[in-house]
Amino acid sequence: MAEKLHFSLVSPAKELFSGEVDHVIAPGTEGEFGVLVNHAPFMSTLKNGVVRVLEGDRTTMRLFVRGGFADVTPAGLTILAEEAVDLASVNVADVDAELEEAKSKLLSEGKDSPHHGALQAHVDYLSDLKAAVVH
Asked: Which of 55, 68, 101, 130 might form a disulfide with 81, Cβ 3.0–4.6 angstroms?
């Protein structure tokens, strides 16, 4: 039996996954990267995007992360995400409704609002999440 990569994905709310997998592809800020068993150690920051877990050449899980860090060590890959969700559990209609509400609030607050940056980041996150769900 081939060796497997130990992979854990943790957010402040909970551990979303921990187990043995063949391959993980993650959205690094410098570009997407893949990790297999016995990968050289490194650390990377993550951007909003989809973490794909593969068994063989088949994607078995898609997890959306909102930023964070990926740490590859001899023990495996650990992703510490600011926020993470299993895309299989996301309802696109709920994301659409929240996105429209966030856009409306952003518009009503205006560019001079002290909350403008946080509201824009939330709109960007919801837009990225929606795109990931529909693809």
From this structure: 68
* CATH superfamily of this structure's domain 5-87: F0F1 ATP synthase delta/epsilon subunit, N-terminal (2.60.15.10)
Reading the chain (135 residues) residue by residue, the pLDDT tens digits are 579 999 999 999 999 999 999 999 999 999 999 999 999 999 999 999 999 999 999 999 999 999 999 999 999 999 999 999 999 999 999 999 999 999 999 999 888 888 899 999 999 999 999 999 987
Annotated domain spans of the chain: 5-87, 90-134
Count of C-beta atoms within a 10 Å radius of residue 21: 20
pTM, to two decimals: 0.88
Q: What stretches of the chain adopt beta strand conformation (E)?
A: 5-10, 15-21, 23-28, 31-36, 42-46, 49-55, 58-65, 68-73, 76-81, 84-86
Per 3-state DSSP, the chain is made up of helix, strand and coil in percentages (nearest 5) of: 30, 45, 25
CB 53 within 8 A of CB 26: no
